[in-house]
Amino acid sequence: MGIISQNLKYLRKRISLTQQQLADQLEVKRAVIGAYEEDRAEPKTELLIKIANLFSISVDEFISERISDKWFLKKEKLAEEQKSAIGNGMRVLSITVDQNNNENVELVPAKASAGYLNGYADPQYVAELPKFHLPFLRGGTFRAFELKGDSMLPLESGTIVVGEYIPNFNDVKTGETYVILSKDEGIVYKRVINKIKENKTLRLQSDNKSYETYSINAEDVLEIWKAKAYISTAFPSPVGEPSLEKLTEMVEQLQKSVTKLKSNDE
């Protein structure tokens, strides 16, 4: 039996639904549910989303993990551990290491940002992310995030920002840039104004002034990574030649300086 068929049947029985009742909730025919559970067909993306929402799990979990009583117990235990750790001012972080026990730098591609919000604390999910090493970054835990959009120009969309993990949010320094993972915003890269001591918020500011500054509650923040380096295939444009107006201004300033020197000599 395939993963999808097994998971659908298990989840349906877990909340004591008949095939007809599940079909009614998903707005499909009962025979369709039967076909899915017997592995004769697979639901399309739109229906997968409805199924995941109905059972309060992610689509990735539904199509790739074998869901069972043990699976739910493990998930609930992980949630309790995270809740307890955050309440004590600590945060749980999943990492991976190479064969020499050196920490990897995991890469979160832009297309995987939504999945990272669900799997950031899951060691198995983190283990499946692409990995690399940067020899000039040592003495910390680092992760790389691919940017999307133009809110932090001159860093362009597609630039990879490498951040160092910040376990204590009070250590965030106003005016510096961070990758922030939060419940509502997902992954964003912003310049931060730390207001945690004043009102338990962080002000997030874009370097592109076309975007407005906004605040998020510190309790909604899941991870913070301080920007340490970036990787880009876009090279900076050369500095342009001075304009005629600028040259004229420079000549006038030079003339004033010469006149002033002559006056001092007389």
Structure write-up:
By secondary structure, the chain is α+β, with helices and mostly antiparallel strands. The chain folds into two domains: 3-67, 434 Repressor (Amino-terminal Domain); 105-231, Umud Fragment, subunit A (Ribbon), CATH 2.10.109. Helix content is 38%, strand content 20%. The chain is built from ten helices and nine strands. The protein has helices spanning 3-14, 19-26, 30-37, 45-54, 59-64, 69-87, 113-119, 123-127, 196-199, 244-265, and strands at residues 105-108, 131-132, 142-146, 160-165, 177-182, 186-195, 201-205, 214-217, 221-231. The chain has a nine-stranded mixed sheet with strand order 2-1-3-4-9-5-6-7-8. β5 and β6 (186-195) form a beta hairpin. Keywords: DNA-binding, Transcription, Transcription regulation. One of its GO terms (molecular function) is DNA binding. It comes from Solitalea koreensis. Pfam families: HTH_3 (PF01381), Peptidase_S24 (PF00717). Residues 8-62 form the HTH cro/C1-type domain.
Task: Give the SSE map.
Layout lengths: L2 H12 L4 H8 L3 H8 L7 H10 L4 H6 L4 H19 L17 E4 L4 H7 L3 H5 L3 E2 L9 E5 L13 E6 L11 E6 L3 E10 H4 L1 E5 L8 E4 L3 E11 L12 H22 L1
Helix pairs in contact: 2-3
Q: What is the CATH superfamily label of the largest domain? A: Umud Fragment, subunit A
CATH topology of the largest domain: Umud Fragment, subunit A
- In CATH terms, what is the architecture of the largest domain? Ribbon
Query: How many helices does DSSP assign?
Result: 10
What is the H-and-E element order?
HHHHHHEHHEEEEEHEEEH
The CATH class name of the largest domain reads: Mainly Beta
Spans with pLDDT under 50 lasting ≥5 residues? none
Strand order, sheet with most strands: 2-1-3-4-9-5-6-7-8
> What proportion of the residues is helical, as a percent range?
25-40%
Distance between the amino and carboxyl termini: 101 Å
Mean pLDDT: 86
| Major pleated sheet | 9 strands, mixed
Strand content: 15-25%
Q: Kindly state the number of beta strands.
A: 9
